[in-house]
């Protein structure tokens, strides 16, 4: 199911973490997958590229990052945007654009709601990820949230996605033996 001709990253999914998906995401991350609840998005190449993670890891550690970008090519694209100063520019816009700040707060609330559907973890109550709702601290989180939730939910995730080169165009980042 490789579609290297796609021009968009595709819709969100919520699929079980099969053994094949776990192998692929572990290979992408270069370490064992921890606390995976679901595959939250699949790359047009067919591999998972976003994992939904439990708000409490198996060892009991609170983990506020619900959506985690697993694809190393997508992560490299996001890092390129971060290095270019995009987070600083986005944070500055929050102070000048009340409508953007309102939409960003809604993204924060969406993130918290989705995480609460999995578990209540008092230690991270009210804490989302990526600096929400007052600053932009990690575009990787915002891109993962945008891919997992779909367009229109996270304004900065949507903007970053629109600025990213199509990371899937060279085919899968990990081989068929991983997925």
Can you give keywords for this protein?
alpha+beta, single chain, globular, 179 residues, 6 helices
What are the SSEs and their pairings?
Blueprint: E1 12-15, H1 19-29, E2 36-42, E3 48-53, E4 67-69, H2 72-83, H3 86-96, H4 98-118, H5 139-149, H6 155-163
Helix pairs in contact: 3-4, 5-6
Mean pLDDT equals 94
Domains, number = 1
Measured by DSSP, the beta-strand proportion falls in 5-15%
Q: Could you name the ranges where pLDDT drops below 50 across 5 or more consecutive residues?
A: none
Number of strands: 4
List the secondary-structure elements in sequence, H or E.
EHEEEHHHHH
Biggest beta sheet summary = 4 strands, antiparallel
**Integer-rounded radius of gyration:** 16 Å
What form results from the Cα inertia axes? Answer: globular
Distance between the termini: 12 Å
